[in-house]
């Protein structure tokens, strides 16, 4: 069941064209990056060009979480995200994904969570810092847990700890994984916002906002009547996707894949 969900083809688009943003606002929502700094830089270049072409607006960038793990340069992605936060201030937003949650938990020194972190792609994240594959392979899990306390920069950890669980703009709610059906955005638990999958993906009932999310990989953008999924598996497909919104208009920018 889960395996089928992860790589199934998108459903046909449903009529969701009534959702809107406040006048003068423009939003670029970026899907799961998973350590692909190269793709992030490409997509940001496309966003800058697109934003300039469309003229002045109150432009916001929303990162839907899972900046790290699986891909080769998680440290570089976090560095780039910090640069953006310093440049754009309140106009750039970062959401806490399940991989950020485990990254922070592993940094706290729990050996069991470090083991889980490595299992879900954390090995690649660790190797993007100042440690060689040879040293990594030589360490026991206990030793690796201790090594992480000095390996992961406090600047990165403090930055990621500041990520939010949801962002609401106009008729849209931006989250990492999804929401628990039947509950308002304000009632949602962080666990569901970061981890939910089948209960959200398979539900077709309307929500109080149109949900924009990542977390569940599809071959291309998935538009449904109650949600838009934009995790296009960048770390393995080469396609990193941004949903672009202004008024009732909706378009997409993608890297090649």
Automatic annotation (TrEMBL):
**What is the protein name for this chain?**
Serine/threonine protein phosphatase
Domain (Calcineurin-like phosphoesterase) spans: 26-219
Mind telling me which InterPro entries this protein's record contains?
A: Ap4A_hydrolase, Calcineurin-like_PHP, Metallo-depent_PP-like
**Gene3D superfamilies reported in the protein's UniProt record:** 3.60.21.10
Where is it found, in Gene Ontology cellular component terms?
cytoplasm
Q: Which PANTHER family match?
A: METALLOPHOSPHOESTERASE, ZINC-DEPENDENT ENDOPOLYPHOSPHATASE
Q: Which Pfam families match?
A: Metallophos (PF00149)
Q: Can you tell which superkingdom this protein's organism belongs to? A: Bacteria
């Amino acid at each position: 069941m889960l395996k089928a969900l992860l790589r199934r083809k998108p459903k046909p688009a449903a009529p969701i064209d009534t959702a809107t943003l406040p006048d003068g606002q423009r939003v670029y929502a970026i899907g799961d990056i998973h350590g692909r700094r190269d793709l992030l830089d490409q997509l940001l270049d496309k966003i800058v060009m697109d934003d300039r072409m469309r003229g002045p607006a109150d432009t916001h960038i929303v990162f839907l979480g899972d900046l790290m793990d699986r891909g080769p340069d998680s440290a570089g992605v976090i560095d780039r995200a910090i640069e953006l936060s310093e440049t754009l201030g309140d106009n750039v937003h970062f959401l806490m994904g399940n991989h950020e949650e485990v990254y922070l938990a592993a940094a706290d020194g729990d050996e069991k969570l470090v083991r889980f972190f490595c299992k879900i792609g954390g090995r690649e994240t660790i190797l993007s810092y100042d440690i060689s594959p040879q040293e990594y392979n030589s360490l026991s899990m206990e030793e690796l847990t201790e090594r992480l306390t000095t390996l992961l920069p406090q600047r990165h950890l403090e930055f990621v700890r500041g990520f939010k669980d949801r962002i609401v703009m106009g008729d849209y709610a931006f989250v990492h994984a999804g929401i628990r059906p039947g509950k308002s955005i304000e009632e949602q638990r962080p666990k569901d916002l970061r981890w939910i999958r089948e209960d959200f993906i398979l539900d077709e009932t309307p929500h109080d906002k149109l949900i924009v999310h990542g977390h569940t990989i599809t071959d291309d953008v998935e538009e449904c009547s109650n949600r838009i999924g934009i995790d296009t598996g960048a770390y393995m497909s080469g396609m990193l996707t941004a949903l672009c919104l202004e008024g009732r208009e909706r378009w997409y920018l993608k890297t090649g894949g």
